[in-house]
Amino acid sequence: MLYAFESDSIVKYIGITENTLKNRMSLYKSGHNEKSSGSTNKKVYKQIKELLENEKVVNIYILT
Questions:
Q1: What b/e sequence results for 4-13 when a residue is b if at least 16 CB atoms lie within 10 Å of its CB, and e otherwise?
Q2: Which of 5, 19, 32, 62 could potentially form a cystine with 23 if both were Cys, beta carbons 3.0 to 4.6 Å apart?
Q3: Is the pTM of this model over 0.85?
């Protein structure tokens, strides 16, 4: 499954997962350190949190 985070018409991050989308998003939500992708989880978590704190809309697009 391919997914992307977008805000203000700018794609902020594109990712792919073999897990369920629910599981993948929960790792971003917590900033969880999972094996080698831990730094990505933290980076995306920080970026989305900053956007939301600045009252920006963050859209998630999914391609199955």
A1: ebebeeeebe
A2: 19
A3: no
